[in-house]
Design goal:
mainly alpha
Amino acid sequence: MVYQKIQQPKLSDVILNQLEEMILEGSLQPGQKLPAERELAVQFAVSRPSLREAMQKLEAKGLVSRRQGGGTFVCDNLLSGLADPLFDLMANKAEAQYDLLEFRHGIQGMAAYYAAMRGTKKDFEHIAEKYEAITVAQIENTTISENYRGEAETVFEFYLAICVASHNAVILHLARAMGELLIDNIEKNLQVLAKRPEVPGRIANYRKKLMESIISGEPNKAWGASHKNLAYIEEVMLNLGEENSRVTRSLRRLKTN
């Protein structure tokens, strides 16, 4: 019997795989600057030539870019294929806002389920931190001006923290790629929902239950809390839409009489 020699993996390929894994899991984010070559070599406990070779391979794959005198950065256009003009079209169509809510039902529910199942202590601390940031944004929104963009961004960051905690690369990067569209959807919803004084408090309560069920490690409760939150928003939005439609019809009748 002839035995084949076992090939040891090249050190630069091992480093490459590690860096790719960090990009995939979100530890290294689009646009993030990598530590200096010397520092990275120390962190990986490898020689600088091996690290340099791995970085060259990473650059050749289009995952990082080097800036003269500025260092090495994770490419911020990794998901540029999703930056489609169709997204801009959806952002301005009222019916598409309901489609986005339905999409959020699916992706946020799955993220919440897996976050409760797989999340670490560090993940839960991150989720709690982003949850607290929403309250701060709401206070600023009330005291400074009715600008819901900042609040929408903090709400998105809260849900993105849940996606990170799900440890599902597809969920995380899809949510991140659709970030602007989802923030826009949240902002539009907040503007409409503000017409009902009782609504923000109920949504905050649903959101708190979502966070608590994730941190307590209850996947089914987390999924249910996410569903109830978004179902309530959709119900209020539809009711307000019907009310606006009735008011419009009434005004039309008044003009014709």
